[in-house]
Amino acid sequence: LVKLGAAAMFHDIGTVLVPDEIFYKTSTLNPDEMKQIRQRPVFSRQILSQLDKDYDYLAEIAFHVYERQDGSGYPSGLKGADIHEYARIIGLADFYEALIHSRPHRDRFLHFTSMKEVLRTGKNSFDRKHLKALMNVVSLFPVFSFVRLNSGTIGKVLETDARYPMRPKVKIIFDAGHRPMTTERIIDLKENTLLFITDGIAEDVA
What we know:
By secondary structure, this protein is an alpha+beta fold. It is 37% helix and 12% strand. It has helices at 2-10, 20-23, 31-37, 40-48, 56-64, 85-100, 111-122, 128-138, and strands at residues 146-149, 154-159, 169-174, 186-188, 197-201. A hairpin with a 4-residue loop joins strand 1 and strand 2.
């Protein structure tokens, strides 16, 4: 765990060698700029290789983080077990983290939208066991997040169950007419099969 944590902290250190005008560009990158962005793992390996031999693993993992299970990653197009396992874990965490935070060219995605994107685009790019672990840790619908049900009501998630990630316990906040509830109504979606979540929503929208 210490090695995994250290590798996660230093995996993108090569970013310091990418020009700021490229890294913080708000418009679409041109092919040459994208090529420089994709040099980050190469730069990271160069920097980390200067450390003591005891830390060789840091350079190897950093070089592999942007490789993908199906060979669609970079810089070498490695597949499956050819990618260091710690790099596969960090690569997934990095992909998820990038979605839930704003970037120069886009606003952050809601957690629910981010998880859907991870599952949609990551099913071939990442290990199934790692995707499952991420799902168990962060959940599709974190506690205190807001969701819309098929009834049109809006609720706040009170409790989740790893066995039923799509069916948390929800406290209804607004009725279908978006009027505040005057009486407490808590629904356990595991037990109420007629109701289900249709979307996650931002707190300011709720």
